[in-house]
Amino acid sequence: MAEMINHFTPNANNNLQIIIGTLLDALQPNLAFYAFYDEGKKMLNFISKGQNTELKRFETSVGGMFAFDVIKKAASEDYMLYGLNKLKPYFKTDYLLKENHFKSLALSPVSYQGKQVALIALCYKEEKDLAADDIELLKSFALIAGVEAQRAIDLRAIRQEKDKYKSVYDHINDGIFILDNHGRYSEVNELAISLLGCERSDMIDKSPVDFSPEFQPDGLTSREKANHVIKNALEVGMSRFYWKHKRKNGQLFDADVSLSKSIHYGESYLLAVVRDITNQCHTEQKLTEAKLRAEESDKLKSAFLANMSHEIRTPLNSIIGFSELLLDDDTEQSDKENFLNLISNAGKSLLQLIDDIIDISKIEAGQVKISKSKVEINALLDEVKTTFDKEMLKRDKGLVKLILDKPLADSQLFLFTDPFRLRQILSNLLSNAIKFVDEGYIKFGYNGINNELMQFYVKDTGIGIEKDKSHLIFQRFGQVDQAYKRNLDGTGLGLAITKHLVELLDGKIWFDSEPGKGSTFYFTMPIEADFWDQSAEGFLFGRMMNDWSDKVFLIVDDVEANYRFLKAVFRDTKALLLWAKSADEAIKICRNNNSISLVLMDIRMPEKDGNQATKTIKAFAPDLPIIAQTAFADEDDRLLALQSGCDDYISKPICKKELASLVKKLLPQ
Fold it and tell me: Is residue 653 reached through a cis peptide bond, with omega within 30 degrees of 0 on the bond before it?
């Protein structure tokens, strides 16, 4: 018996098979079987083995089965011997007896929890009386079988309970992580595996820190925060917190985590319920941004109404006040002439204010009409220059120089566009520049021409625009000058109107700016080939005719319009152009692409600037030519660019002839 028990395993059903096999060898019946009545199924389960047959397991209904009658009706004895006379009534119905022609059965009930639900039987084909020692052995085996039967039932109940909870565990909509007291994963559900994008084997015995970035958003390292929340959960029973997770592919996601101390299969564990809230965070961020925009819009409207009151009352005060003085007989004639000029200027200011309000109202209602015709650009620019020369005198801007840039000054250059709206766009941009420049210059004109687009610009050396205010520039009522405490005139509608007009003419508008150095506004207008004067000298001005079909140029600029302009500039060279929208992206492209011939690096970019990117690139590609491009290339900027590793620099607006010369000089021959 001791040897038999040494062969027992954790599997109770296997142990019952071992018991039957051992009895067969020890007491030499023709057949030994274990019969168990399943109350739930109302079925008899058999484990049987004969001297010349393999061990069998089967299930059958209880009808007509001798074993069932013994289990249910003869439970008062702990040992029974049935001879042929007692068995004969069952030979017609019990196939076990009918087929084997047994003449005697030695039985011992199997009980647990005080209830008989099974039996062990030894079947003989001859009349058989067991010796007292054999009977005791059979009873002992029945006791052991009772223990194993009890364990089998308990294990089945545990397994059923486990399966029930595992079904919930695997199909819940959150990731479930079970951690040991050392904070390592001991079990995970299917959604947890999906959340981290890896196999279960990759996660077991790993820590949450292994699936997290180095730092959490609150500034703590992931390890520090993990230790803190685990300690807190162990001490108080539960901890809930926000966590930044990292999937196997490196992608980060936001998670809401509930960590609680729990008893799992009789042992103390930590249970982490993890919910991916990335979409929720994005939605909340958008709602917050929308709320801020709404609040900002409300403030802008309030400021606009206050400003409108001031803008309307100021010219009206002049008109009404000086009109009353004109009616006074004591007013000198020379004063009257001066008053008339002041009234006229106030009337024009009021008219401009009304025009702006009407224009923005028409734009919002979609009622602005565009009337295109053939427009000679140089002539239109000359008219604008003349108008604003006079305007500069009126505004006492003697220290500001107005410069017109016409690269094709002697040619007739035509666009098919709306001359009134194009003049309005230039006038709005120049009026805006004049307000912010007290000394220096304002330069305007065009600098980029290709077969599709013409690029205009207005550049000033004024106060510039802070980055945190740049998003207000093209908004209605958006006046950033308040940050500089320059309560200048204007409705705050000019640039909003300008943007809409540019887009109505199928163009794009953008700007570069730096506080203290000034701003440059660019806008493009589409060109139709039929409206070029084909006989004009210099028709191919600025076109790069070099063959660079074997070259790869990387354009680094966060503004798409700047990239598109340079793409048009290089079109005829057949060079392959790549575009990086940030410094980090430029570094990655240069590191992974050895075929790049030259880099055009914008210096002013968010997060990491072009000088930092240049230093990094030059560290692993020292011979790669890099040209810095900046809207404000003064001597300090030039020196900083060169010290960072740039081979040369070019200022915006970019002159294509100068750019072609620089590229040709820097490309390896």
Answer: yes
Distance CA 328, CA 466 (A): 50
Q: Note the pLDDT tens digit of each residue in 181-225.
A: 788 888 888 888 888 888 888 889 999 999 999 898 888 899 999
d(CA 363, CA 504): 10
Place of tokens 């001297």: 51
Identify residue 481 by its one-letter amino acid code: D
What is the average pLDDT score of the chain?
81
Helix axes 419-435 and 377-394, enclosed angle (nearest 10)? 30
Contact at 8 Å (CB) between 508 and 487? no
Q: Quick one: angle between helices 610-620 and 583-592, nearest 10?
A: 20
Q: How far is CA 20 from the centre of its chain?
A: 64
Q: Which residues are within 8 A (CB) of 172 and not within 5 positions of it... i.e. 6 or more apart?
A: 189, 191
Name the H helices within 580-650. 583-592, 610-620, 635-644
Phi, psi (degrees; rounded to nearest 5) at 434:
-60, -35
**Gyration radius of the chain over CA positions:** 46
Retrieve residue 208's tokens. Answer: 């949450």
Pick from 647, 350, 298: which is nearest to 489 by CA?
A: 350
Average pLDDT value for residue range 613-626:
94
Res 471 pLDDT > 70: no
Which amino acid is present at 584? D
DSSP count for the chain of H helices, then E strands: 19, 23
Q: What is the pLDDT of residue 165?
A: 61
Which pLDDT band, with edges at 50, 70 and 90, does 651 fall under? confident
Under 8 Å between Cβ of 486 and 311: no
Kindly provide the residue ranges of all beta strands, DSSP E only, lying in 252-349, ordered along the sequence.
Answer: 252-264, 267-276
Residue 282 has pLDDT above 90, yes or no: no
Between CA 453 and CA 628 the distance in angstroms is: 24
Q: What is the pTM of this model?
A: 0.44
User: Is 60 exceeded by the pLDDT of residue 264?
Assistant: no
Round to whole Å and give the CA distance between 6 and 3: 5
Please name the residues in contact with 331: beta carbons below 8 A apart, sequence gap of 6 or more.
Answer: 325, 339
Burial class, 305, CB count within 10 angstroms (exposed 0-12 / middle 13-18 / buried 19+): exposed
CA angle 9, 13, 15 (to 5 degrees): 45
Instruction: Indicate whether 593 pLDDT > 60.
Output: yes
Q: Which helix (H) or strand (E) holds 649?
A: strand 648-651
